[in-house]
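Hi Prof. W.,

I finally got the Flavin-nucleotide-binding protein prediction working! I wasn't sure whether to trim anything, so I left the full sequence exactly as given:
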Amino acid sequence: MEYPKEARNTVNRKGKMRGKYDLETVHSIIQQARVVHVSFTPFPDDPFPVILPMIGIMGSYARPSAGLDEPQECYLHGYVSSRIMNVTKQTVVDGKLGLPVCVAASRVDGLVLALSPNAHSYNYRSAVLFGYATPVTDVGEKLWAMEQITNKVVPNRWENTRVPPNAAEMSSTQILKVTVQNASAKVRDGPPGDELVDLKDDDVRGRVWAGYVPMVEQLLDPVASSYNRVGEVPAHVKEYIEVANQEELDYANKLVGVVKNATE
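And this is what came out:
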């Protein structure tokens, strides 16, 4: 399944090469990002948008088993009296579909070093969602979303904490649900793209190193808090660190193969 290509979400520059519209690619980038950036306009007469870093997940409360290749909503976690929460609530009061928002995420996978400054780049994965945000008012859906967001930090973390949240925590936390209207992703995963004039210049090729530097995100050894009384790091934390680090390395090695093959 793919998001429909419209003026808003169509990738223009090198869109045929790098633009992606399938749900799985778009959703997986949002899901993997530690932080998403949410843009909205808080005041009708203010020309400047606000951009907030938030924790976000893709999911479907109505169909919890839905995969990333199926329609899902984006859930955002925040403080109940923050500006975005108040503005979102007001749009609902005004009878609108919700607050128009843009949710963006990106991952840098490597440094692309070319012969000329203009051809330098990154290998990356990026995604943008466009949709309407509404407050989650159903307690069951709110608890479900809070659990999913907690488990995005570390899988199985929710069940290994003091749960359920108490009344004060529930009242101070607001979850927004973004109903996605359309979206797209852009992915670069190749070698440097130098101009033919430079590739034919033996002098330039003989003195300028060109290539690719892989980049991975790695989790280091856990550090206990000053009040921690648990002797060992829990298995679910250690296992996640190992799995997450290996997945990063596996993807980096796969990308190195893509770059090498494209170069050859």
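The helical segments are 15-18, 23-32, 83-93, 139-153, 167-172, 196-199, 202-207, 235-263. Does that look reasonable to you?

Thanks,
D.
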